[in-house]
Design brief:
The complex is a heterotrimer of chains A (226), B (45) and C (220). Chain A is mainly α. Chain A is 80% helix and 0% strand. Chain C is mainly α and 220 residues long. Chain C has one domain (2-219): Four Helix Bundle (Hemerythrin (Met), subunit A). Chain C has helices spanning 2-25, 38-66, 69-101, 109-129, 134-162, 169-175, 179-219. Classes of the chains: A mainly alpha (226), B mainly alpha (45), C mainly alpha (220).
């Protein structure tokens, strides 16, 4: 058990060191998410009243789309030079390697979100944490679920002939519960709604995260069997 | 017969899809069988 | 060979009987008129598509745990047939909805879940198309077959919570179903199950023959 976590930690450490040096994944994700935030602002009239109904959705779209971009980049880095195959052949738990990648992807996404959110709040003149700090919890839980399924399907899609095109096609329909629940939660917090209303959505994201972590943990070793 | 055209078009789509699929399957089965028997006869030679 | 021919004949008879039950035996619905007769084959197709994806789900586990390609053939055949029937559901549904609800589409939980189901399994078939190596194709699509099927109930509940205001269609239709209508529905569900089995045998045969063909050509 301890060995398992050491493997996870080693993978995360390797990815973070690499990323600190190149900054490829986080910077490209960040620029893309800021662009989404800016491009979507043309939907409204400046200073329109109905803005509060839509901004939660825009924030999530920025995260999801730039997340897809980042997951592809992160997995492509891993496949160049046969790095991934070598990792999976190493005499450690294969699912530990996988969850190491999940944690480092989660970390990259969280960094991107931590920089996007303040800029987003300035541009749209809104405070998503004003009503409840649960906004941060929703975003982190959603990001975790996104990175679990996203890492698995980016691993699968880099092996296809079309490579990165495949990832959004497989991932987007599967993460609809997270997108839906995340947007509903943020809408409640932004519009000063009843916080107890948001608990069921939080639970939904929690259930999603737990189920898919458990399922992938159980089947991953069989998926990559050589 | 109220709304007859809606009923007609719905069933039209159902049968187009099912028959199309069955025809596609039959032709690919025959095609493969032909290829296989050709291969097997070649191997016997 | 004999069994498959028998299944073909039984299917043909069952479908003919189902058509008789749908159009002649079942009474005309008072309010909706003849368009209500879409219901029998629409529900039967929906049942078959869910059943087919369930077969894919179960066979995906066998693919992962036993490494036998026969299960991969069954899983992918079932997904293919499921997509055919899911497409039928998605086309006949709006055709029924237009005269009854006055709109082609509403974001009702059942409709939306079926649409997302369609996207998941189209992704499954595309993934298979774009993977070259046999074992990767089997394993990766099995992973999607398992995760996709587990995802469906979560999608359904999330959309139901999102759209709680909407009326529940199935309870309207199912609660007030006349006994003769129910008989017609059961007959068409049976007919479509037979149709599924026939298509399954044919599709799996195609995949099996193709695998043999590939093997012979690669051996030479």
């Amino acid at each position: 058990m301890k060995k398992y976590f050491i493997t996870v930690y080693n993978i995360v450490e390797k990815d973070l060191l690499l990323e600190l040096k190149s900054k490829e994944v986080v910077v490209s994700m960040l620029l893309f998410s800021l662009l989404v935030v800016i491009v979507f602002s043309f939907i409204f009239e400046p200073g329109a009243e109905y803005k509060n109904d839509l901004v939660g959705g825009i924030l999530w779209m920025a995260f999801i789309f730039s997340g897809v971009l980042g997951l592809n980049k992160s997995m492509l880095n891993e496949t160049t030079g046969g790095n991934l195959n070598a990792l999976l052949l190493a005499p450690v738990d294969r699912s530990a390697v996988f969850f190491g990648k999940v944690v480092s992807n989660f970390f990259f996404l969280a960094v991107m979100e931590a920089i996007t959110i303040p800029i987003f709040m300035i541009f749209y003149n809104i405070n998503i944490f004003g009503h409840s700090v649960l906004s941060a919890v929703v975003i982190l839980m959603g990001t975790y679920g996104f990175s679990v399924l996203g890492t698995l399907f980016s691993l699968i899609s880099v092996k296809t002939k079309t490579r990165e095109v495949m990832l959004p096609l497989l991932l987007l329909p599967l993460i609809i519960p997270i997108i839906l629940a995340g947007i509903q939660c943020l809408n409640i917090y932004i519009k000063n709604g009843d916080i107890t209303e948001s608990y069921k959505w939080l639970k939904l994201i929690g259930v999603f995260d737990v189920i898919f972590t458990a399922v992938i943990f159980a089947i991953f070793d069989y998926i990559v069997e050589e | 017969m109220k709304n007859f055209w809606f009923l007609f078009s719905a069933y039209l789509f159902i049968w187009i899809f099912i028959f199309g699929y069955v025809l596609k399957l039959n032709s690919s089965i025959n095609n493969l069988k032909m290829k296989l028997s050709k291969l097997e006869s070649e191997m016997e030679d | 060979m004999k069994i498959t021919a028998l299944v073909d004949i039984v299917t043909f008879i069952a479908v003919s009987v189902a058509i008789y039950f749908t159009f002649i035996f079942a009474p005309l619905e008072a309010q909706m008129g003849s368009v209500q007769k879409i219901f029998y084959f629409h529900v039967a197709s929906a049942w078959i598509s869910f059943f087919a994806f369930f077969v894919t789900f179960v066979c995906s586990f066998f693919v992962l745990f036993t490494n036998k390609y026969i299960f991969d053939d069954i899983a992918s055949s079932s997904a293919e047939i499921g997509i055919i029937f899911c497409t039928i559901v998605l086309i006949t549904g709006p055709i029924w909805a237009k005269p009854i609800w006055g709109t082609w589409w509403t974001w009702d939980p059942r409709l939306t879940t079926t649409l997302i189901l369609w996207f998941i399994y189209v992704g499954y078939l595309m993934l298979r198309k774009f993977l070259d190596e046999e074992d990767k194709k089997a394993k990766f699509s099995a992973a999607l077959g398992i995760i996709g099927f587990i995802d469906v109930p979560i999608v359904f509940f999330s959309i139901r919570w999102w759209r709680t205001i909407h009326p529940n269609v199935l309870q309207q239709g199912g609660g007030g179903l006349a006994p003769d209508m129910l008989k017609a529905l059961l007959v068409s569900i049976f007919a479509f199950t037979m149709l599924y089995i026939t298509l399954m045998i044919k599709t799996a045969t195609v995949k099996h023959l193709f695998r043999r063909y590939e093997k012979i050509t690669s051996d030479r």
